[in-house]
Amino acid sequence: MKGIKEYAMLLMLLLASVAIKAQDIVVISEGNFVRGTIQGTDFSTVILKNEDESLSQFKAKDIKEFLWNGDTYVSKPILIKKRMELRFFKVIARGAVNLYSIGGNTGAEEPQQKRTRIRPSIGIGGGTGGFGGIGGGVGITIGGGRNRQDDQARQAGPTGYFIERFGTGPMVELPVNAGNSDSKNQQIKNVLLQKLSNDEDLAERIKATESFDAKLIKAFVAAYNEMHK
What we know:
Helix content is 29%, strand content 32%. It is an alpha+beta fold and 229 residues long. Strand 6 (71-80) and strand 7 form a beta hairpin.
């Protein structure tokens, strides 16, 4: 009997540990964080549902990062309409070179509750590459009184990709879009050759590439970081 009780207790502890680890986390500063369930983000603000079902709103300028469904989103500066602001960027790769994304579908099912819902929204647009904006524009809205299909349609937007290597200037946008022009592909090639330097084999592969997509860029960055640990 004692063995069964000990096994049951151990199982309960393991399940509790899994439940805790499954929670999302908002990191306000080093060593200062809160747990809960993230409802969504517009890349300027993130909404966290607390254990008491209340909602907390955190702005990119006020926190360091957050962990949502196993992905990390970090707060980083970006120039928007000639003004430096902070936005959340999803971490795609970290290492000698960092790769981030912003935009896309970040919706989550709305919590079924009677409280007034928080409905932040943001529009980022006009950028044509580089550090001056996000190509194609990004429009994300979370919350609201619409049906789920309408929310998903509004949340789905273009994804912008940014690459960063410390010591080589600010992070730079990679204009990754379907049907890229030759000039856009050449722009991506130039940025990759600058950021993924000191690797002749990789440089030759980049030079030989005629068209870039997000999957290929991730592979190039992953290969570079693996060789420069």
